[in-house]
Amino acid sequence: MKRMVLMALFAMALPLAAFAGSVDFTNSGGVLSGSSAGLTLGTSELIAVNGLNGLGLVTGGLGNLSFSTGALSGGSLQTGGTFASGGSFIITGNGTDGIPSGTIFKGSFTGPVTWTLVTLGNSTHNYELNGQISGTWFNGSTVYGATVQLTINTGKGFFGGSTNISSGDTNITTVPEPGTLGLLGTGLLGLAGALHRKLKA
Question: pTM of this prediction?
Answer without folding.
Answer: 0.78
